[in-house]
Amino acid sequence: MDTHNIVNFCIENSISENNQNIVLEYLKGLNRSGLKEATIRNNEHFLRFLLTHTKTDLDKFTRKDVNDIQDAINDWTKKNGKPASPTSKMQYKITLQRFLKGYGASTNNKELIELAKFGFAKVEGKKLESEDILSEEEVEKIIACCIGIRDKALVAIIYELGARVGEIQNCKIGDVKDHPYGFHITLNGKTGRRQVLLHKYQVYLKQWLVAHPNVNDPKAPLFTTAREYADSSYGKNKKKQGKDEPRAHSPLRTISMNLLLKKAARKAGIKKNVYCHLLRHSQATRLANTMTEQQLKKQMGWAGSSNMAQTYVHLSNPEIDNAVLASYGIRVVQDKEGNKVNRCARCSMPIPSGMRYCDCGMPVTQEAAQDKEMLIADVLTYLQQDPALLAKVSSKIK
Fold first, then answer.
1. Which of 176, 260, 271, 370 lies 20 to 30 Å (CA to CA) from residue 48?
2. What would the mean pLDDT of 234-262 be, rounded to a whole number?
């Protein structure tokens, strides 16, 4: 466990030696208990907040001190001046309870354990609606607008695998194995390791592996920074950076992934709030059409007892829509993957994805229909300028 960041923070903010020792021992205890690095990092972020909002020794906290911290959390604003989300505030209060209870138990401080008993309103996270989800067509537009093959492969793989960002950051070159239908990729996430198949967008990964700067190193991150960084220059105190340190390509950070994705989405004209985890939500919704609940849990890396699969089954319920359409005499035909097969309203022939017109000439998209109307209007305007030609055409129509 790296403690340099929290130590430097305490020094720069003149935190008392007692409080510094308390937070260090608490973080080391979390590390010894086997918690994941991301969880420990989140606790460290909270402890920084705690240390900057109290001058009291943490092992001598009173009810007033706990109330003051809760008030500070309620008034919490981020660096951009915007208030923290209700969910973030609730999480900090939960982390405060765990700190008081955990550190109190480890030091036999019954007063701290008692202080952990405070209530607060539970906040439900924002529920995604079906209109928030990205369609496959929208994802492909975003991929097309990504700059460079690394970014295209990143977006495509997060989407097709339904991967968590942390799983992609943990992914190494050695986790990628050839498969007759693409690649098997081993993801290591909060529920353990799982192997998933990359098929549809395998071409992007093939191209990225050709361009990857460390493709022959099995331990190299699958998605790396374009630049090389020294060990102390990436995510650490820049003042400690050494000019002669070994430099290497580092794993892409979450903020970098989200920024490149948002930039590509804007370029593609997508108006939705696009972020990396939305790709996972969108794929889970798509797969809910064709997979059983247990299959979906395995694909997405959810525990067997998790209720997450039900969320996406509810978001994607084509059976009800199809039943309503059937009541009007409309039969929705689906392919083997459960995707709707569009058919021409005139001749009933199937329409491949991306086609604007059927072979019979019927426009099959709204844009094509609008283009046809504009063309008809232009022709009529032209004919009105030539009465003789208009009369000839009219006689042919009759």
1. 260
2. 69
